[in-house]
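Section 3.1: Structural characterization of target chains.
Under the original work plan, the team committed to producing a structural model for every single-chain target entering the pipeline before any wet-lab resources were allocated. The record below documents one such target. The sequence was received from the expression subgroup and is listed exactly as submitted; it comprises 102 residues.
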Amino acid sequence: MPYHRAEHLNHQDVRINELTIHSFEMGVYLAEVDYDGRKAFLVDNENKPQRFNSVEQVKQALDRCTIYQAYLVHQSAYDEMCGGPEKVDNTLKVPLFVPGAV
């Protein structure tokens, strides 16, 4: 499974094509990075997905590199009720401003 580490990417010469921050319940955020043709989640020292507590925390972890596009993605679970209509894709993808982005 491909992965990235924030400490390996957070350098001035690194150019990230796309950063996708996935928002989950209880204030958990996971960051997915498209860098050097490989799209993968950021992982911690134990190779588990690195959890962030805010969008700002993700931005701080990658504050030295150049990010061309950044998005916040959230999927609501509120349409999963018994007897309700068939689930539709309710993904919300919002562009983010990242300082230093081109």
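The CA atoms of residues 28 and 67 lie 21 Å apart.
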